[in-house]
Amino acid sequence: MEDVISHWVRDAVRRVRAIDMHTHLFPPAFASLWRSGADHVLTYHYLIAEAIRAGHRSPASFYAMPLPDQAAWVYAQLFEQASPLSEAAMGVVAIARAFGVDLRRDGLMGLREALCDQPSDRYAARVFELAGVDQVVMTNDPLDPAERAYWLEGAPVDARFLPALRLDPFLGDWRTLGERLAEAGISLSPRADASDLAAIRRFLEDWIERMRPLYLAFSAPPEWAYPSEDTSGRVLEACILPACAAHGLPLALMIGVRRQVNTALRDAGDASGRANLQAVERLAASHPDLKILVTVLSREDQHELTVLARKFANVVPFGCWWFVNTESLTREISAMRLELLGPTFVLQHSDARVLEHLVYKWASARELAAHVLVHKYTKIARTGWRVTRGEIEREVGRLFRDNFLRLVGRA
Ligand code: REL
Ligand code: ZN
What InterPro entries does the database record attribute to this sequence (predicted)? Predict the structure, then answer.
């Protein structure tokens, strides 16, 4: 029976079509924001941090090189002068293999030839197919001028790329928010008074109408507090939470990022810290109708978040974010979530920044699911539960797509 269970689980996990609830990808029509191809794969900020560390080079001199030279230098540090043992480096090997490239034999040139670096519908379809992904959710920032232009000109949104409205600048400091909103034609006073909050609320309404996002989201530093009397707390209370309520939209919180602890590293310069999860507890308790998707960056917060989700059914843990998206930590975190919550969370998201990331990140998520679920199903069978193939398929479907789709009202 145990071999049969293992076969059923592996087969279900291999076949399930994932919905990727958090990426930084854009459809081909958002051409300048599209990222694919070997040079972008090699210059993922995860790899930049690792290469700079291995190669003892200053971030400034690294970033001074043109993109192809950056990619070649990263490749030299992490694949020619070392074995690609890290999660992100192994990811490149997995991408290469999926495209029929043997990196030892074909090198970076082989990878450049196999991957396409131009916006392309057909290529997107091919990569989605290789990853077994049906749809990805974008990170849509209405305060990014390049992105805003695509929305305003009515660039077609591909049904495979679902919108999510990202609100980080709204939770930052008031002056910077004022400057960013001014570029979008909205002027705020220094007072953060009721008319300013009303203007922000109208801006959000406008963009919810335009984007039709699946959820609203923001990332937050470890010290993020709720409730809070500062301007970001007031924006949350007076603008963001009412918008979620009015449109029945979930709020996704990504907590624990300490931005730019090493500014010279740019995107690679963010770190993590322990969050104050009592803020989430208070938000969940005071807004029982608000669905709150939560992911936390530090390993130390994972258990507390899981326990919190037991207390509030409106809190749904999702994925293993960034520094905890590694083989050992995803196994630990996902097993713990199953043990304390059953299959009522979202197993994984990719956080892909480059299209081909989908391939290795979802291959890893499948390996993770197989590892954890073979163990659990074998155990309940030994304990006396007659396991069926159908129930395995149902739970795998929940973990990879259905829990999320139900939460955003698309099931
Ligand atoms: O969405 C986020 O805030 C983060 O995932 C990103 O800021 C981060 O740079 C990302 O690439 C991590 O995976
Ligand atoms: Zn992200």
Answer: Metal_Hydrolase
Burial class (CB in 10 A: 0-12, 13-18, 19+), 182: exposed
Whether pTM exceeds 0.95: yes
Q: Is the ipTM of this complex over 0.95?
A: yes
41 — pLDDT class (breaks 50, 70, 90): very high
Q: H or E segment at 115?
A: none
Residue 161, beta-bridge partner list: 136
**Mean pLDDT, residues 230-241:** 98
Pocket of ligand 1 (CB under 6 A): 139, 219, 254, 267, 322, 351, 353
Percent of the chain clearing pLDDT 70 (strictly above): 100
Q: Give the Å distance between the CA of 349 and the centre of ligand 2.
A: 9
User: Tokens 């963001």 sit at which residue?
Assistant: 240
Confirm or reject CATH 1.20.1530.20 for domain 37-115, answering yes or no: no
pLDDT computed for residue 112 by the predictor: 99
Beta strands in 256-395 (DSSP E): 257-258, 271-272, 292-296, 315-317
Radius of gyration of the chain (CA): 22
Point out the ligand 1 atom lying closest to the alpha carbon of residue 254.
Answer: 3
> Structural domain boundaries of the chain?
37-115
DSSP assigned state of 260: T
Of the residues 141, 322, 330, which should be mutated to test ligand 1's pocket, given the most ligand atoms within 8 Å of the CB?
A: 322
Q: At what angle are helices 103-114 and 87-98 packed, to 10 degrees?
A: 70
240: nearest Cα among 224, 254, 251, 229? 251
> What is the number of the ligand 1 atom nearest to the C-alpha of 257?
3
Residue 223 in 3-state DSSP? Answer: coil
3-state helix, strand, coil in the chain (%, to 5): 60, 10, 35
| 247 class by beta-carbon count within 10 Å (0-12 exposed, 13-18 middle, 19+ buried) | middle
Distance CA 383, CA 366 (A): 25
What integer pLDDT is reported at residue 128 of this predicted model?
A: 98
Token digits for 199?
A: 């203007």
- Provide the residues around ligand 2 (an ion) whose CB is within 5 A: 351
